[in-house]
Amino acid sequence: MMVPGAPSTTTTMLPASEAAKIYQTNYVRNSRAIGVLWAIFTILFAIVNVVCFIQPYWIGDGADTPQAGYFGLFHYCIGNGLSRDLTCQGSFTEFSTIPSGAFKAASFFIGMSTVLVLTCIGCFALFFFCSTGTVYKICGWMQLAAGTCLILGCMIYPDGWDSDEVKRMCGEQTDKYTLGACSVRWAYILAIMGIMDALILSFLAFVLGNRQDSLMSEELLGDSFSLFSLHRGRQ
């Protein structure tokens, strides 16, 4: 029984079409927000990749090493035992100066990873010309390939620790996958962390791409339903 003057407790239900539009608007807004975060973290991942590639701090000396110094992918510096000055060598443009075949291979794969992620950022321009879902998937494959190259580079790099130059710095006990008296430096750790970044970003790109495809399908279905209803209403 309704009491006169009491507020009505009847809940007004939105029409199905309006509820669907509200849901679709929120869906698009959330997807765009996640897409912006994905783009920002992709740029940060590219910075990490470039830093890991160019910085010569993958391994370095320790308290008990015969010589001071540090090694990167292709550039390295070692002391001569007579002074604090370090002699630096190695260049990516001159493969013959890289002291190990494993270092050369690791340099190639990490360099390829850097090129892929920078190309992925360049593909952001395709959002203005192509389907959003397609661009997300292209970038997702690039990020997955970049992560794979990072994995290969990080796995191959320790195979070169038995080179003469590394042994001169780290001691004769140094061997493949055994650093002797030396230690792993921050660039190598950053590269390993970059692998997880690449895998997470590629997964997110595929999810966003599939969401965009499903959103387009729902829009086409909604337009078709509206045209069908309008046609029926005129009959």
Describe the protein.
The longest helix has 49 residues, at 186-234. The protein is elongated and about 70 Å long. A hairpin with a 6-residue loop joins strand 3 (76-79) and strand 4 (86-89). The model is unreliable at 219-231 (pLDDT under 50). By secondary structure, the protein is α+β, with helices and mostly antiparallel strands. It has helices at 16-54, 101-122, 132-156, 164-170, 186-234; strands at 59-60, 69-71, 76-79, 86-89, 183-184.
Percent in strands: 5-15%
Instruction: Tell me, briefly, the overall form.
Output: elongated
Topology pattern, helix = H, strand = E = HEEEEHHHEH
Cα end-to-end separation: 43 Å
State the share of residues found in helices, binned by percent. Answer: 55-70%
Q: What is the number of beta strands?
A: 5
- Nearest-integer average pLDDT: 82
Supply Rg.
28 Å
Give the SSE map.
Layout: H1 16-54, E1 59-60, E2 69-71, E3 76-79, E4 86-89, H2 101-122, H3 132-156, H4 164-170, E5 183-184, H5 186-234
Helix pairs in contact: 1-2, 1-5, 2-3, 3-5
Question: What's a concise summary of this model?
Answer:
The chain is α+β, with helices and mostly antiparallel strands.
